[in-house]
Amino acid sequence: MISPSNRALAVELIQEANQNGARMAKACEELHISVRTYERWVADDGVKVDQRPLTKRPVPQNKLTEKEKEEILTVVKHKEYVDLPPTQIVPKLADKGTYIASESTFYRVLREEKMQNHRGRSQKPVKRVPESHLATSPNQVWTWDITWLGGPAKGLYYRLYLIIDLFSRKVVGWEVWETEEAKHAETLVKKAVINEKIKGAPLVLHSDNGSPMKAETFLSLLEKLGIQSSFSRPRVSNDNPYSEAMFRTLKYRPDYPYNGFASLTEAREWAQKFVHWYNEVHMHSGLKFVTPVQCHTGEHIAILEKRKAIYEAAKTKHPERWARGIRNWKPNEQVALNPMRDEEQTEA
Q1: Of the candidates 155, 156, 148, 77, the residue with the CA atom closest to the CA atom of residue 109
Q2: DSSP string, 282-314
Q3: What whole-number distance in Å separates Cα of residue 249 and Cα of residue 221?
Q4: Regarding beta strands 42-43 and 203-207, do their DSSP bridges make them parallel or antiparallel, or are they unpaired?
Q5: What is the CATH number of domain 133-286?
Q6: Cα end-to-end distance, the chain, whole Å
Q7: CB 173 within 8 A of CB 162
Q8: Using CA atoms, how far apart are residues 164 and 141, in angstroms rounded to an integer?
Q9: Which of 16, 32, 58, 126 has its CA at a distance of 20 to 30 angstroms from the CA of residue 241?
Q10: What are the φ/ψ torsions at residue 16 (nearest 5 degrees)?
Q11: Domain limits of the chain?
């Protein structure tokens, strides 16, 4: 319950914020009250105290006594009932000629005591937090996955293996094969490391839990190359979002052959053209509309600085056309894979 003095202070703060340009709804939100509550508190001649919270209300006739509540807690902890839900406890008690309260009341008491789901040997499930990685420059974190490309007949598919750099979104390696095998993944990673000239450098390679990704021979290769493996949580589809987004972009290209590729050679030729377009032509929205190659090489910094200067000059020339500041052309300083939320950091 908020005291009259605190309400008066809250009203004063909200009015001050509103006079300085803040929206009333936002000012109220900061103090965790609604605009309607504020309006009740405020009268033309000052603060009007809301008397409703101060009203003394009669105790409901059907309210459980403390003794009855204790009886419920004693019963649910009994060896005979400790593993049973209220839907079974209440009938069993009735068979013995005992009635304490309804099933819904049992559930409410258990919820209040945080005993509804985890009594006896039952343990609260541990929430698995996805592996989180931060890239501040290219070739620190890679993500990879395999997608299926339609073949010449129904039920026949080719497999596109593709690795992208988290920071720059550049495709650093790709292969198209007829099957999903660890040996193809090994070839892909070796070529990517050689092409990027990063052998021995610290690197994280993130993927889902497919069999090629977790094969012993593949994991052994990563260890030899000094690459740290990282995996999505089991049965979680969005722990590898950058690779998934890449495949969506790929399959929504206007020239993607929805009827399937006629041969493995045709699939490889199309994939090569797509990778060239994506890396060197496509202006990526997540990179402030520079190409992945420009971001990978560092050229994007000068490009974005030039754009910023052009926008500033345009604003100086016609300031009346700019209600706010210029567009943000600041390059990304870091990119996170599955960033941890505040509550996850607290649990950790």
Answers
A1: 77
A2: --BGGGTSB-HHHHHHTHHHHHHHHHHHHHHHH
A3: 30
A4: unpaired
A5: 3.30.420.10
A6: 34
A7: yes
A8: 9
A9: 126
A10: -65, -45
A11: 4-54, 66-112, 133-286
Handedness of CA 211, 216, 220, 221 (dihedral sign): negative
Rounded Cα distance between 76 and 141, Å, is 51
Q: Which amino acid is at 65?
A: T
| 109/112 Cα distance (integer angstroms) | 5
The tokens for 207 are 């993927």
> DSSP label at 167?
T
Q: Residue 259 CA to chain centroid, in angstroms?
A: 34
Q: Residue 171 and residue 98: Cα distance in Å, rounded?
A: 70
Helix ranges restricted to H, the chain: 4-19, 24-30, 35-41, 66-77, 86-95, 103-112, 182-196, 211-214, 216-225, 241-251, 264-280, 292-297, 299-317, 342-347
Residue 106: how many CA atoms within 13 Å on its side-chain side? 22
Tell me how far apart the alpha carbons of residues 264 and 155 are, in angstroms, rounded to a whole number: 15
Tokens representing residue 328 in the block: 């943000």
**pTM higher than 0.85:** no
State the Cα–Cα distance between residues 300 and 287, nearest whole angstrom: 9
φ/ψ (deg, to 5) at 46: 140, -155
Structure tokens at 150: 């339609």
User: Over the stretch 89-106, which tens digit does the pLDDT of each residue have?
Assistant: 999 999 999 999 999 999
Give the orientation angle of helix 182-196 with respect to helix 216-225, to 10 degrees.
20
Q: What is the pLDDT of residues 270-324, one digit of tens each?
A: 999 999 999 999 999 999 999 999 999 999 999 999 999 999 999 999 999 988 8
Strand partners, 231: 207
H or E element that contains 154: none
Closest of 167, 149, 160 to residue 297, by C-alpha: 167
Q: Give me the phi and psi of 93, to 5 degrees please.
A: -65, -40
Cβ–Cβ < 8 Å for 165, 332:
no
Return the pLDDT at 125: 66
The DSSP call for residue 112 is H
Question: Which residue has tokens 């013995």?
Answer: 96
Q: How many residues does the chain have?
A: 348
Average pLDDT, the chain: 88
